[in-house]
TrEMBL record:
Its EC number is 2.7.13.3. Residues 252-368 form the Response regulatory domain. The modification 4-aspartylphosphate is found at D301. It comes from the Bacteria. Residues 1-226 form the Histidine kinase domain. GO terms for molecular function: phosphorelay sensor kinase activity. SMART domains: HATPase_c (SM00387), REC (SM00448). Pfam families: HATPase_c (PF02518), Response_reg (PF00072). The lineage of its organism: Bacteria, Bacillati, Cyanobacteriota, Cyanophyceae, Oscillatoriophycideae. It comes from Crocosphaera watsonii WH 0401. Transmembrane segments: none annotated. InterPro entries: CheY-like_superfamily, HATPase_C_sf, HATPase_dom, His_kinase_dom, HisK_dim/P_dom, HisK_dim/P_sf, Sig_transdc_His_kin-like_C, Sig_transdc_resp-reg_receiver. Keywords: Kinase, Phosphoprotein, Transferase, Two-component regulatory system. It catalyses: ATP + protein L-histidine = ADP + protein N-phospho-L-histidine. This is histidine kinase.
C-alpha cells in the first residue's frame, strides 16, 4: 500500500520540479507550484515516516555500517534545508571538530534520517535567529550511563541548538513518544519517535534541554569505528573532483617549467577544474608575471631554482613574503642534503615525481583552503592548517596589544558577536586576514583563535 501511494507521488514531485524551472511562468504560477510542491513533499514525508515506523516496531530494520565522510553528509543535509532557511530568514551553521577522523564507519542512511528529522523540527519551531549543528568526539566522562563500548569504537556526539519557541518542562519527557505532537497543528508525531528509536538501535542515546521562549538543545551520541587504510584507499578510487565548488574565489596559479610538456600537463589538468592558470619557461618572466598578476600559488621545477640566478629566486621569495604566495617545488629525482636545506628556504612544500594529480589538488586545498565539487557530491575541505598558516606573528603584529587581548578574551568566552566587531577593526587592505579570522569564527573554532593569539600577548 505504501509503495502504491509513494510511486505516483514521486512522479508528481518530479513534474513539479521540472515546472519550477520554467521561466515562462508568472510569479503567481511559480508560487502555486511552490506550494503544491511543498504540500506534496509533506505528504510523502508522512508516508515515509509511517512506513519507517512500521518497520521499526516490527523489528525489520538492521544496522548497515558503511564508510562516511562527515563533511559530505552534513553539507548535503544543510543544503537540503537551504530554501526553507532562506525563506524564514534564519541562519544554519555547522561545525565539525577538526580532531574527528575525516572517514568514519557508521550507518549513513540512519544518521541522515536522524539529522533530517531533528533539523526539520528545529526549523519548524524557530521563527528567527540561528540553528547550529556541532559534531565532536566524546569524552567518556560525558556519558551518564556505564557505557562499555569496544576499544575500536568511539562515540560521535552531535548537538543541534536553536533559539526557537522551546518546549514546556511538563511535556519534555513525552516528545519522543509515538504520535505525540508539541504543536497540534503541525506534523504527525512520528519524527522524534523514529529519531529516538534509531539512536537506541544504533547503540546511542539522546538528551533534550529546552526553555520556553529561549530555544532547545538536543544532544545525542552514536558509536562509530575508524576504517582501515585499505578501506579508505578503495573508497577514494570511486571519487573524482569535477570542478571548484560554487562561489569559490578566482584562484590564480602560476606554473614555471622549462619543458612545455610539463607545463601543459599541469595546466590542462587544472584549468577545466576552474583555476586561472599562467605559464612561464624562465624565472625572469615568472618574476614579471608574479609582480603584475600576483598568483596565489606557484608550482616550479626545482632544477630551475637550483641552477638559475639566485637573485631572481630571492626576488620571487620576497614577493612571496609580501603577498603570501605559496611556492610548491616539483622534483624529478633525489636531492642532496644541501639542496633540500636550500629548498626549505625558498619553498613551502615539495612534490617528488612520480605523483598523482590528486596530490596536486590536495596541496592546493591545503594551502588555499579550496572547496571542490566531487562527482555528484560537494565536499567542503576548509583547511584549518592553511588558516593558521596565514594568521601568524608577521600578519597580526600590526594590531595593537589591546586588540589582541580583547580577541583572546572574546574567543575564550565564545563571544562570536564581539569577535565579529573586533574583526571589523582590521584594516580593509588585509582582506586575507579578515577572511581567515571570519572563517574560524563562522566555524566556531574559538580554540584555534586562542592558540594563534596567545603567543602574541605581552
Amino acid at each position: 500500500m505504501n509503495y502504491e501511494l509513494r510511486l505516483p507521488l514521486n512522479n508528481i514531485l518530479g513534474f513539479l520540479e521540472q515546472s519550477s524551472y520554467d521561466n515562462s511562468l508568472t510569479q503567481e504560477q511559480k508560487d502555486n507550484v511552490y506550494y503544491i510542491q511543498k504540500n506534496s513533499q509533506h505528504l510523502l514525508q508522512l508516508l515515509n515516516k509511517n512506513f519507517y515506523f512500521s518497520k521499526l516496531i516490527s523489528g525489520k530494520i538492521s544496522i548497515q555500517r558503511n564508510m562516511v565522510i562527515l563533511e559530505n553528509l552534513v553539507n548535503s543535509i544543510s543544503r537540503q534545508f537551504e530554501e526553507e532557511v532562506k525563506r524564514k530568514k534564519l541562519k544554519l551553521n555547522y561545525y565539525i571538530e577538526p580532531e574527528i577522523s575525516r572517514y568514519i564507519k557508521i550507518d549513513e542512511t540512519k544518521l541522515r534520517t536522524i539529522l533530517v528529522n531533528l533539523l526539520d523540527n528545529s526549523i519548524k519551531f524557530t521563527d528567527q535567529g540561528m540553528i547550529t549543528i556541532k559534531l565532536f568526539c566524546d569524552n567518556q566522562a560525558w556519558l551518564s550511563d556505564n557505557n562499555t563500548d569496544s576499544l575500536d569504537q568511539e562515540n560521535l556526539w552531535i548537538e543541534i541548538e536553536d533559539n526557537g519557541s522551546g518546549i514546556a518542562p511538563d511535556i519534555q519527557d513525552k516528545v519522543f513518544e509515538p504520535f505525540f505532537r508539541v504543536n497540534k497543528k503541525q506534523g504527525f508525531g512520528l519524527g522524534l519517535s523514529i529519531t529516538s528509536q534509531l539512536i537506541n538501535l544504533m547503540g546511542g542515546k539522546i538528551y533534550l534541554s529546552s526553555q520556553l521562549g529561549r530555544g532547545t538543545i538536543i544532544q545525542f551520541y552514536l558509536p562509530f569505528t575508524i576504517p582501515k587504510t585499505e578501506e579508505i584507499r578503495t573508497n577514494n578510487q570511486h571519487q573524482t573532483i569535477v570542478s571548484l565548488a560554487n562561489n569559490e574565489p578566482n584562484y590564480r596559479i602560476l606554473v614555471i617549467d622549462e619543458q612545455q610538456e610539463n607545463r601543459e600537463l599541469l595546466v590542462d589538468f587544472l584549468k577545466p577544474i576552474g583555476f586561472n592558470l599562467k605559464e612561464a619557461s624562465k624565472l625572469q618572466s615568472a618574476l614579471d608575471v608574479s609582480r603584475t598578476w600576483q598568483p596565489h600559488l606557484i608550482f616550479v621545477d626545482i632544477k630551475m631554482l637550483l641552477s638559475e640566478n639566485n637573485q631572481i629566486v630571492n626576488e620571487i621569495k620576497n614577493l612571496q613574503t609580501l603577498n603570501q604566495i605559496t611556492i610548491v617545488g616539483i622534483a624529478s629525482g633525489k636531492l642532496e642534503e644541501s639542496q633540500r636545506e636550500q629548498l626549505q628556504i625558498w619553498c613551502d612544500d615539495c612534490l617528488y615525481k612520480p605523483f598523482s594529480m590528486d596530490l596536486i589538488l590536495e596541496k592546493i586545498n591545503f594551502y588555499l583552503g579550496v572547496s571542490y565539487l566531487w562527482n555528484n557530491e560537494e565536499v567542503e575541505m576548509i583547511s584549518t592548517r592553511k588558516i593558521v598558516k596565514s594568521l601568524n606573528y608577521t600578519t597580526l603584529k600590526m594590531m595593537s596589544s589591546q586588540w589582541l587581548k580583547e580577541v583572546y578574551s572574546a574567543a575564550s568566552s565564545g563571544n562570536r558577536s564581539l569577535l565579529e566587531e573586533l574583526i571589523q577593526q582590521i584594516p580593509e587592505r588585509h582582506d586575507s586576514i579578515i577572511n581567515s579570522m571570519r572563517e574560524l569564527v563562522n566555524n566556531f573554532n574559538c580554540r584555534q583563535i586562542r592558540e594563534i593569539i596567545e603567543p602574541l600577548i605581552d
